[in-house]
Design a protein that fits this description.
Length: 264
């Protein structure tokens, strides 16, 4: 009970501190809104408020520009900045809707690639946390990461010349590693319970979907062990032969060759 109370207390303190730091519930922002005479000036005021984490104030300025000057180019910029405001407030579903709508409404805009990338990034931002009071992210639902993988792949394919390509590829690499780690975690979960067909299924998923992450030794020796438990020596040996073929100069291949040479 003491541990539970401590966890609840720490979560409350963390949440309270985070909200205060981000001004998410500030009621003073609206009082600071004093509209200027031009669209550009109001946009600048919104940008300054956003940089200062005065999110409500920023939203007021961007909404004002969007509604008062709908036929000017600056209105499109205001749309994008509204999405950025939601993103910074960690309102990722709302931000994703705004970014996605921007891409649909303004497909030729010079910053459409930015909007597309940020829409994909909202999935990544929703990924499970490893906060110390919570279960490891490997144990949680991976829906956000799967969404991030799909969206990032779509972005990389659709906008090959975008300046956001390097960042998108780096983010995708992290997503893929986390998804592979999740599959290995589930395989380990089934292994402890002797559910060998389920272990094989998960390891084969890693072998097929994530062949470039340096996990070959863990995957193929895992398959060797699982098939051995199922009394299927032919498939067990085939797993080791696959490892040797994939990485013949690796330590794992040497180990696999040693096992094969001593097996009947």
């Amino acid at each position: 009970m003491k541990v539970k109370k401590l966890a609840v207390t720490l979560l409350f303190v963390a949440a309270s501190s985070g909200c205060a730091g981000f001004n998410l519930f500030s009621t003073d922002d609206a009082a600071n809104v004093k509209y200027a005479d031009s669209a550009e000036a109001n946009l600048d005021k919104g940008n300054a408020a956003l940089a200062n984490k005065s999110y409500i104030e920023a939203q007021r300025y961007f909404d004002f520009v969007k509604s008062k000057y709908p036929y000017l180019e600056v209105a499109k910029t205001a749309e994008l900045r509204l999405a950025d405001t939601d993103f910074e407030r960690e309102k990722y579903i709302e931000a994703r809707d705004r970014y996605t709508n921007f891409v649909k409404l303004h497909p030729t805009h010079p910053r459409v690639d930015y909007a597309a990338y940020r829409a994909a990034l909202t999935h990544y931002k929703e990924m499970p946390s490893d906060f110390f009071l919570l279960p490891p992210s490997d144990e949680k639902d991976q829906g956000a990461l799967k969404g991030a993988a799909i969206s990032l792949n779509d972005f990389i394919r659709t906008y090959p010349g975008s300046e956001w390509q390097p960042e998108a590829k780096k983010t995708l690499a992290d997503v893929r590693k986390r998804l592979a780690d999740h599959e290995l975690y589930v395989a380990s979960f089934y292994e402890k319970r002797g559910r060998w067909p389920a272990v094989i299924n998960r390891l084969n998923t890693v072998a097929h979907d994530y062949p470039d992450l340096g996990l070959d030794e863990k995957v193929y020796f895992g398959l060797y062990d699982a098939y051995s438990k199922l009394k299927d020596p032919d498939k067990a040996k085939e797993a080791l032969r696959t490892l040797i073929a994939r990485a013949p100069a690796s330590e794992g291949a040497k180990r696999a060759q040693s096992v094969l040479s001593t097996s009947k």
